[in-house]
Design a protein that fits this description.
Layout lengths: L1 H15 L2 H8 L3 H15 L4 E3 L4 E3 L1 H27 L5 E7 L1 H18 L3 E7 L6 H4 L3 E6 L6 E8 L2 E5 L1 H7 L12 E5 L7 E6 L2 E6 L1 E6 L2 H9 L4 E5 H9 L4 E3 L9 E7 L6 H16 L4
């Protein structure tokens, strides 16, 4: 612990710009900080700092030592915070991002149940359909329906999701029921530009994954708008099942090509790649996994 105190003193002095400033910021005496840094230099057998009455700078050895030592201390502080999180109830601000329609219709009950269980957590819930840069915007965790492609992020599967191809009964009666994926090329389709692949819809034909480019009278950036357009008879739509199935159940839409729509999409909890995941984030993810096991997404 004494060695760690000396290393921390060295980093604090340089970060603060001098011994006096470090003493004020960290509540230690200037003499103690100076002793710690001198002891560290004596132990290493090398000068780490150039000290003058007006300026403090690092030697070449000091720069190398500072770079590694500051990272080490940051990791230790992060580890301390993580262990503290794990041994106490989640608390504090939690920033969560999710797609708007999914968030409003399906995710909200799960999130609010989490808040009821952990009242010391304050939620900042961002429901929007644009791509959110988690690091840039300070988001703790994002719920995404897709396959993850950003290697700077890590993810945990929450639940299986599925798509379905739907259309209004009158439109299907007029144009006929598509029998193959290729039939969709001649059908009017509603393109949700937030859908992975956008106008290139994927199907399974003869055991192989194929992509079919579709066209139609409507392009939108909302699956809820795509559903409304489909109900209005404007075209076929590829909808997440949580939006499509209720409309199929009440007769507003019918499902087609159900045996040819590939599975594999998942609801994922995505978060920035950190050495230690905050306890409140881990607890939320565990809660969501359990919630969607008990309340499957249809």
């Amino acid at each position: 612990m004494q060695d760690l105190a000396r290393i921390r003193a060295f980093v604090q002095v340089f970060d603060s710009g001098g011994f006096s400033a470090a003493a004020r910021q960290h509540g230690r005496s200037k003499a103690l900080l100076s002793k710690y840094v001198t002891d560290l230099e004596d132990y290493l057998g090398v000068r780490l700092m150039n000290r003058t009455t007006r300026k403090l700078s690092l030697t070449e050895a000091g720069e190398a030592y500072y770079r590694e030592a500051s990272q080490l201390l940051a990791q230790l502080d992060d580890l301390d915070a993580t262990i503290s999180d794990q041994t106490s109830a989640p608390r504090g601000l939690l920033r969560v991002s999710a797609p708007r329609n999914f968030g409003e219709s399906t995710l909200a009950p799960a999130i609010f149940a989490f808040l009821a269980e952990y009242p010391a957590v304050t939620l900042d819930l961002r429901l929007e359909d644009r791509y959110v840069d988690l690091v840039e915007e300070g988001i703790d965790v994002a719920l995404r329906i897709s396959t993850m492609t950003d290697s700077s992020l890590i993810a945990r599967k929450i639940a299986d999701m599925s798509l379905m191809i739907v259309a209004a009964p009158a439109l299907v009666k007029k144009l006929g029921v598509p029998k193959t994926a290729d039939d969709m090329r001649r059908m009017p389709c509603i393109v949700d530009i937030n859908l992975q692949g956008q106008a290139n819809w994927r199907f399974i034909e003869d055991g192989k994954l194929v992509s079919v480019h579709v066209t139609g009278p409507v392009r939108c950036n909302s699956p809820l708008a795509a559903r409304s357009a489909a109900i209005a008879g404007l075209g076929f739509a590829a909808l997440p099942s949580y939006l499509g199935e209720p409309a199929v159940a009440d007769g507003s839409l019918v499902s087609v090509l159900a045996d040819r729509v590939p599975t594999g999409q998942t609801l994922q909890a995505v978060y920035p790649h950190r050495r230690h995941l905050a306890g409140k984030v881990r607890t939320l993810i565990d809660h969501l996994v359990k919630w969607f096991e008990e309340h499957p997404v249809h």
